[in-house]
Amino acid sequence: MKWTVDIPEADRHAVVTTSGTFGVADHLRMIEDIVSRPGWRPGTDVLFDHRQLTFGDADFGTMTQARANHLRHNDRIGGGKAAILVRSLSDYGRGRQFELLTNDNVAASLCVFLDPDEAVGWLRAGRSPARAVSGG
Fold first, then answer.
1. pLDDT recorded at residue 128
2. How far is CA 34 from CA 18, 45, 114, in A?
């Protein structure tokens, strides 16, 4: 799994773009990389663009491990919003598992999207997204 990170200087959201194949160990390294970067502030809103990421055989157990990765750095991640952008309905389902596993357990608000405009709109707006699934 590879990633790039763009952390804004002002009150804008960061963008993390991923590619390759998802793995829990890589996910942990990605989190550690993001929260260790100069300019990172706990509570920064982030768009995770996973449209070039393959989730392979990731299942509920994998999403549970990813949740543990997030919890491990919860204080450094902070209470911002994380829009998780995926490319397919099956990836959306995996993302929703992760979202539901983290609800009420982490400081951040997470929401999964198939549409990039909806993801960015949610980051710029309030914290209660519509749950409609639209194409991507």
1. 44
2. 12, 12, 23
In a domain, 131, yes or no: no
Q: CB atoms < 10 A from the CB of 29, how many?
A: 14
Residue 92 domain-assigned? yes
The model's pTM: 0.89
Task: Enumerate long-range contacts of 87-90, CB under 8 Å, 24 or more apart.
Answer: 87/50, 87/51, 87/52, 87/114, 87/136, 88/114, 88/136, 89/114, 89/133, 90/55
Query: Within a domain: residue 23?
Result: yes
Q: What is the pLDDT of residues 46-64, one digit of tens each?
A: 999 999 999 988 999 999 9
Which range of residues forms the domain containing residue 111?
2-124
pLDDT at 129 over 50: no
Three-state secondary structure call for residue 115: coil
In a domain, 113, yes or no: yes
d(CA 86, CA 116) in angstroms, rounded, equals 9
